[in-house]
Amino acid sequence: MKLSFAAVVALLGLASATAALPRENDLLTCTYASGTEMPPTVCAELRSAHEWQTARTAYRQRLIDESAAEHAALRAASAASDATALARRQELDRRLADHLLETEEKLAALRVRQEALARREARAAAAREARIDAMRLECGRDFQSPRVGMAFDRAGRCMGNLRLVSEQPSGAGVASTYRAGPLLLTFRDGAVVSWSDRRGR
């Protein structure tokens, strides 16, 4: 089917308006719209998809510009009598139509991938919330509220995952500092001796 130049441009405008990828995620800092950090491989894939779409948009615009120039030249030179120019116009129209089809297929695949990533993030967020609710129920007032004298096991259950930051031997024993999110807790002899909150609380 031969497309007129006006029809091709209209189709391209429709495809551009309806097939744009969501841009809620921050690909510069690799964070989801929810503010959580996305895995590096997922961030790289989404960046690649965005770069691909940008390149395809530039390529599509170049084809449109070439087609517009060719049509203008053909009108000025009475292209109906120029078989070579007519063939060139038909070739450009065919390339534009093929490009539209390929772009739609690629964007459909990217939308499927984007939706899968969104579902995965939603499941992960729900799991995090469930863990926090369970921790809050078990710990009561100790939930993310360290205090001097709190046992190491209790702190691990109520603050979240404790990650060792440093160990400092002293005459009173080894002082071990752990991080749990924004909290820094220092233990000696299996109990909290001091703590701080990076949020200033």
Indicate the topology:
Blueprint: H1 5-18, H2 40-76, H3 83-139, H4 152-159, E1 163-170, E2 173-180, E3 183-188, E4 191-197
Antiparallel strand pairs: 1-2, 2-3, 3-4
Alpha-carbon Rg, integer: 30 Å
What is the chain-wise order of helices and strands?
A: HHHHEEEE
Question: Strand order, biggest sheet?
Answer: 1-2-3-4
Q: Summarize model confidence as the mean pLDDT.
A: 81
How many H/I helices? Answer: 4
% residues in beta strands: 5-15%
Shape, per Cα inertia axes? rod-shaped
Number of strands: 4
Major pleated sheet: 4 strands, antiparallel
State the share of residues found in helices, binned by percent: 55-70%
The first-to-last residue Cα distance is: 69 Å
* Computed structural class: alpha+beta
- Low-pLDDT segments: 1-23
Q: Give the number of domains.
A: 2
What does this structure look like?
This protein is of the alpha+beta class and 201 residues long. The protein folds into two domains: 5-139, no CATH class; 152-197, no CATH class. The protein contains four helices and four strands; from the N terminus they run ααααββββ. A four-stranded antiparallel β-sheet has the order 1-2-3-4, with helices on one face. A hairpin with a 2-residue loop joins strand 1 (163-170) and strand 2 (173-180). The chain is rod-shaped, with a radius of gyration of 30 Å. It starts with a helix and ends with a strand.
